[in-house]
Specification:
Blueprint (H helix, E strand, L loop, with lengths): L3 H25 L8 E7 L6 H9 L4 E4 L7 E6 L4 E7 L5 H10 L2 E5 L8 H13 L3 E7 L6 H18 L5 E4 L2 H13 L6 H4 L3 E3 L2 E6 L6 E9 L11 E3 L3 E3 L1 E6 L25 H4 L1 H7 L1 E5 L26 H13 L12 H4 L5 H7 L3 H11 L6 H20 L5 H28 L3 E2 L7 H4 L33 H14 L10 E10 H8 L5 E4 L7 E8 L15 E5 L2 E5 L2 E4 L5 E5 L8 E8 L7 E5 L5 E2 L4 E15 L3 E5 L5 H6 L4 E4 L4 E8 L4 E6 L9 E8 L32
Parallel strand pairs: 1-4, 1-5, 5-6, 6-7, 15-26, 22-26
Antiparallel strand pairs: 2-3, 3-4, 8-17, 9-10, 10-16, 11-12, 11-17, 13-14, 13-16, 18-23, 19-20, 19-24, 21-22, 21-23, 26-27, 26-31, 27-30, 28-29, 28-31, 29-30
């Protein structure tokens, strides 16, 4: 109802508000009231001069405050003249976990390049992982290069500028050889627009500035961890739970407010004059007693309001017991059976479940018109077959290879080590063969001859249409499903929670405060990891995020990875702010409520990954790593495993054919008679009757078969993931570019 002038005025006001919000964010970051500007140095080449970069940054007209003793790459810069303060942290070479964890909390990343090559293979691999996880604001620094002749220096700069166009289209290179160039770099870091990562903007987080471990009374292995740092993102409440990246979820007992060690108005040590670089009193080393006296207790946890650490539901074994029905319920059941009863002619020995799948002649005629619609789906799912001689020859060749392996006898220690590598290569070759066979013959299995097919496949069922046939999602659930939490409406809960974060004010430590968090019942291994130089990162959890559920990720395989990855194989997950290990299931990404199981991670299509893991509200990025792509969270309700039994037409008539080699006894043919048949060339049909006692059967199809066609029978069974969630990931991912690592790019979650 607004006039044209009012609408223009309203748009102008909204534009001005957004501009003021961006300016306020720039001014608060690194200022007196905001947290220090956290800059993480990431060398992308083995020859990148990270030490020279640090030396030039420390040569500014600012106070240099060391953060970690004996670690030159972790320091702070205080510049009262510019009213700015920075904290610089150098990522450890060879530890990809540390780089990814620091990138989760960094305000800016400073990539240090080589003046001639830019980045090597390890640097390219690191960039792939950082882009997949979500890249904050960044800058490109190129130290060195003065030793090159002027002509080669210009050529190298052009070559480097051309190389970064693919990765960083609008980035600017900052040469870093003088103090003036380093001051320009600092000014760029302070004034550039900050890029937001959704998973951290809605949660309070901090990078540990200092930490202290107080052993508990019962055991020295578990105690209280006092972590000091600057609050970022959101207000930190003591009653919420906190997640230590790589170690798990914990409760907080209290939050203290010690003096700010990086104040822009620092205390000068008495008896010393101001030199060219100001010397700041190290409160962490020399003034511990004074800090303890100045420390104020901000808040203590309220047991009534504190979030519980319960992550699983304790199932009641008597909850599923059913009482004896009343007479009214029995009468209602009999009445419903009479109204829904259908008379169908069935063979002798047919169960009620099998009889429900038998189609009447009238229904069969009405459904012939819809066959063409299903044929298009089946053509995509079926592939061409190879001859039976090729399969038999491969089966005959396998024992010969095994015999050759048993004849090798190592003669020395070197031979033993070499043979171990050969065994690994043979295992990898076998996995390559399995992946290739799964591509050529998807889901096809051989019918066993020593076990009846009705016994071997008794847990499977037939479906008339994989897309439209009903499947009750609560049917035959495993016992692990009694341990997880389920949302009545996940999207609505997420929407209300995010709206509450934006509108309501939380009581606690505000953004920019320097606090000490007392984390309860923390193992001593967390402190040992921090002493080794690994980053200690804390994230506060939103309500329900400590509870276990079934998470589904939509992932793309990275093009650089070519090693087969089998389902239920243990992988390392970087999911938003979490890092954990689990054995996932892979399934196809479709719009239906059922998703067919994939035995391997496909390189050419998006795959849904299903695991048991704590709830994480999307959006969040996900990366998968193997022990030694783009994604989003989806709602995958049911994961179905498909088995395909194949047979060959023996005699072909107009619309009928005699099929053999699918079954090997008459009883199996009668058992699977209600299941619909398909062929690789798109025909559909059903079993009419068995012939003889050796598994031959007469089948009727909707058209004449070709002699080279293959008859298929699809069986389905629901699959559930394994409960293998482990929040502890002690083994670091190797920095060297490896074909076994799977950087998978950004993700949404359900």
């Amino acid at each position: 109802d607004l006039s044209r002038g009012d609408r223009r005025h309203q748009a102008l006001q909204l534009r001005r508000q957004r501009k003021e919000a961006v300016l306020a964010e720039k001014r608060s970051l690194g200022s007196r009231d905001g947290p220090p500007h956290l800059v993480v140095l990431v060398p992308l080449h083995s020859r990148a001069a990270a030490h020279d970069t640090l030396h030039l940054l420390q040569s500014q007209d600012a106070a240099v405050v060391p953060v970690a003793e004996g670690k030159a790459g972790d320091f702070a810069l205080l510049c009262p003249r510019l009213k700015q303060r920075w904290r610089f942290v150098t990522a450890q070479a060879g530890d990809l976990h540390a780089v990814l964890d620091l990138a989760k909390v960094a305000d800016s990343l400073l990539f240090v390049l080589d003046p001639t090559d830019g980045w090597d293979s390890a640097g390219d691999y690191c960039l792939s992982c950082l882009f997949a996880q979500g890249l904050p604001s960044y800058a490109l620094a190129v130290p060195g290069g003065n030793d090159l002749p002027p002509k080669k220096r210009i050529d190298a700069r052009k070559k480097l500028a051309k190389a970064i166009e693919k990765r960083f289209p609008e980035a600017k290179l900052f040469p870093l050889n003088t103090e003036q160039e380093s001051s320009l770099l600092l000014r760029h870091l302070a004034t550039q627009k900050q890029r937001h990562l959704a998973f951290r903007d809605r949660r309070a987080h901090l990078l540990a500035y200092a930490a202290e471990f107080v052993p508990g009374q019962e055991s020295d292995l578990v105690g209280t961890l006092k972590v000091s740092g600057f609050v970022r993102g959101q207000t930190l409440s003591v009653n919420s739970l906190v997640h230590i990246v790589g170690h798990g979820d914990f409760q907080m007992s209290q939050v203290d407010a010690p003096p700010d060690p990086l104040s822009l108005n620092p205390r000068v040590v008495k008896g010393q004059k101001k030199s060219e670089h100001m010397e700041i009193q190290d409160d962490s080393a020399n003034g511990t007693d004074e800090m303890e006296q100045d420390t104020k207790v901000l808040m203590k946890a309220d047991p009534k309001k504190q979030e519980s650490l319960q992550s699983e539901v304790v199932p009641d074994p008597m909850e599923g017991e059913q009482t004896w029905p009343t007479e009214e319920e029995l009468q209602e059941a009999e009445a419903s059976l009479k109204t829904n009863r259908r008379v169908v002619k069935v063979p002798k020995g047919t169960s009620k479940y099998q009889a429900a799948w038998i189609v009447d002649d009238g229904e069969e005629g009405s459904e012939k018109d819809d066959d063409d619609d299903y044929d298009d789906e089946d053509d995509d799912m079926m592939e061409e077959a190879v001859s039976q001689e090729g399969e038999s020859s491969e089966e005959e060749g396998e024992p010969a290879e095994e015999d050759c392996e048993t004849m090798t006898i190592p003669e020395s220690l070197r031979d033993d080590q070499y043979d171990e590598k050969v065994e690994e290569d043979e295992q990898m070759l076998e996995r390559y063969k399995q992946e290739r066979m799964d591509e050529m013959f998807p889901d096809e299995v051989d019918t066993p001859r020593d076990v009846p097919a009705r016994v071997r496949f008794q847990k499977y069922r037939g479906l008339k249409s994989f897309r439209t046939s009903p499947w009750d999602p609560k049917e035959n659930l495993p016992r692990d499903y009694a341990r997880i939490f389920q949302f009545q409406d996940f999207a609505r809960t997420r929407k209300n929670l995010f709206r509450q974060i934006e509108k309501e004010e939380t009581e606690g430590a505000s953004v920019g405060w320097y606090v000490t968090v007392h984390v309860c019942n923390v193992p001593v291994s967390v402190m040992e990891s921090f002493k080794e130089g690994k980053p200690l990162v804390l994230f506060s959890l939103l309500p329900h995020e400590q509870k276990m559920s079934v998470l589904n990720f939509l992932v793309h395989r990275h093009p650089s990875n070519c090693e087969p990855v089998r389902a239920k194989e243990e992988l390392i997950f970087h999911c938003g702010f979490r890092r954990f290990r689990a054995s996932p299931l892979f399934s196809q990404h479709t719009s239906a409520d059922k998703h067919k199981l994939e035995r391997f991670l496909r390189p050419d299509a998006a795959v849904v990954v299903t695991v048991y893991a704590p709830i994480t509200f999307p959006p969040a990025s996900v990366l998968l790593f193997k022990q030694r792509g783009n994604g989003k969270l989806v709602n995958a309700e049911i994961v179905i495993k498909r088995l395909v039994l194949s047979g060959h037409p023996f005699k072909i008539f107009t619309r009928t054919a005699v099929v053999r080699y699918m079954f090997f006894n008459r009883e199996d043919v009668m058992w699977f008679k209600p299941v619909e048949l398909r062929t690789k060339w798109g025909r559909r049909g059903h079993i009419k009757e068995p012939l003889g006692t050796h598994g031959h059967m007469k089948c009727h199809f909707d058209g004449q078969l070709k002699s080279q066609d293959t008859v298929l029978l699809n069986l389905y069974k629901r699959i559930f993931p394994k409960w293998t969630y482990d929040p502890h990931v002690p083994e670091p991912v190797p920095w060297v570019r490896s074909e076994s690592a799977l950087p998978v790019q950004e993700v949404e979650m359900d």
